[in-house]
Specification:
By secondary structure, the chain is mainly alpha-helical. It contains four helices and no strands.
Length: about 140
């Protein structure tokens, strides 16, 4: 009799566990950010949607990784949205601020922030690629 379940590769198991840790920390951090932003008045009000979306995206990553743990390929797509949406959103939300900072004589600071953003984007992209490599084993 043929076994209908595919065994989860060790690499996928490690990725999922790392993702659960990261998602847990992300959800807690973003909820704390929302709590802190609520105390800042009007400035905090502008940050609330950012933290809310970041929290939702962390939950999407968590749900996607749980699906991939169960060897379901749909989890990869859910996870990918959860990882890439914040990168796109950050660019959209902070592009104007970066332009203003560059124009106000803060070109060096703007460059340093942009470099940090690029480095910060490498980890989510790397995880998407590593999960993609494992989709061949998923159904």
């Amino acid at each position: 009799m043929e076994n209908s379940t595919t065994q989860r590769p060790t690499f996928l198991t490690v990725l999922c566990i790392l993702t659960w840790i990261g998602c847990g920390l992300g959800i807690i951090g973003n909820l704390m950010g929302m709590a802190g932003a609520s105390m800042l008045g009007s400035i905090g009000g502008k940050l609330m949607p950012y933290y809310a979306i970041q929290t939702i995206c962390a939950i999407l990553c968590l749900v996607g990784s749980i699906q991939m743990w169960k060897m379901k390929k749909m989890g990869f797509y859910i996870y990918t949205v959860g990882e890439l949406l914040p990168l796109i959103l950050s660019y959209i939300l902070f592009a104007d601020a970066m332009k203003a900072l560059s124009g106000a004589g803060g070109k060096g600071l703007a460059s340093a922030i942009a470099a940090g953003g690029i480095i910060g984007a490498l980890i989510p992209i790397a995880f998407v690629v590593m999960y993609f490599v494992n989709t061949k084993d998923m159904k």
